[in-house]
Amino acid sequence: MRVILALLLVTFAHCYPQHGYGHYDGGLIGHAPIIHAAPVHKIIAEPVAYPKYAFKYGVQDHHTGDHKSQHEERDGDVVKGEYSLVEPDGTIRNVKYTADHHNGFNAVVTKSGHAVHPQVVHKVVPVAAHYSTGHGHY
What does the CA dihedral 22, 25, 29, 32 come to, rounded to 10 degrees? Predict the structure, then answer.
């Protein structure tokens, strides 16, 4: 059994197919089939560009009230940024954040302005009542 296993391992390690694909050709060495292995391909790593960028973004829509902005920059594995937006209650949320491999993601959130909540007006709607005297049709 050990001889068959050794022959099989030698066959795998040293035989390559003619067409680039592994196949079994049915031949026998003793009792072991001849199995051809696919050729070994080298993997060549592509160079990775150094990650560095900066961007800004903003919206000032006076018609809809949509006001927001963001800016971010990355230099290697360090990301720093800030964004702000107007909340539905009228306050401004400002978030300053940093991220790196040593400290992870950290954000400081602040709010400014005064919250304004719309007043709810309750209307009293008269309800029409129908009284029956008991002398009529039901």
Answer: 60
Beta strands in 87-129 (DSSP E): 92-100, 104-112
The burial class, CB within 10 Å (0-12 / 13-18 / 19+), for 37 is middle
pLDDT, tens digit (0-9, with 9 covering 90-100), for 83-125: 999 998 989 999 999 999 999 999 999 999 999 887 888 888 7
The answer to whether 68 touches 84, Cβ cutoff 8 Å, is yes
Q: Which residues contact 65 (CB under 8 A, 6 or more apart)?
A: 86
The rounded distance, in Å, linking the Cα atoms of 9 and 110 is: 67
CA angle 47, 45, 22 (to 5 degrees): 160
pTM above 0.90, yes or no: no
